[in-house]
Amino acid sequence: MPAATRQEPAIEGWFATDEASAAHLIGSKCPRCGTYVFPPRANNCPNPACDGDHLESVPLSRRGTLWSYTENRYAPPPPYPATDPFEPFAVAAVQLADEGLIVLGKVVDGTLATDLRIGMEMELTTMPLFTDDGVERIVYGWRIAS
User: Fold this and answer.
1) How many domains does the chain have?
2) Do 101 and 38 contact (CB within 8 A), yes or no?
3) Domain assignment of residue 56, yes or no
């Protein structure tokens, strides 16, 4: 894998980091009914009982409760990047503490399904996904809260 000269998000606008490098997700909130959504969007409230058409960008909780999880044991097919050799990884569905949203994300390397339990506290982090043309692409992910 080529050496990275800088880091950039794999998808712009889904997460940000503060001065202490702590990550938070960026979501949207309907000012009319208070419904949250992730990934963020500018319009169309997802609440079927609301006709709001303007959503505001808001930071989301950094912590939540493990709602469900699984383990990916097979490498993705081309053109998707995968480590060589492929290493299995866990995927977590985490219910955000304040908003109640359930957000899917990869769990940090070294944590597999046998390490996880429904109801445990999880916290947001960032991790490299792949390096392309000297740019290390970063994604949000989950780790067991300390």
Assistant:
1) 1
2) yes
3) yes
- Full domain range(s) for residue 81: 6-144
CB 96 within 8 A of CB 116: no
- pLDDT tens digits for range 14-38: 999 888 888 999 999 999 999 999 9
Regarding pTM above 0.85, the answer is yes
The three-point CA angle 142-143-145 to 5° equals 120
In a domain, 1, yes or no: no
Nearest to 36 by CA among 15, 56, 51: 56
Residue closest to 91 by CA, chosen among 45, 141, 32, 133: 141
Q: Which string of DSSP letters, residue by residue, matches 107-130?
A: BPTT--GGG--TT-EEEEEEEEEE
Q: CA of 19: how far to CAs of 22, 23, 86, in Å?
A: 7, 10, 34
Query: Quick check: 1 pLDDT over 60?
Result: no
Which tens digits make up the pLDDT trace of 54-70? 999 999 999 999 999 99
Residue 92 in contact with residue 107, Cβ under 8 Å?
yes
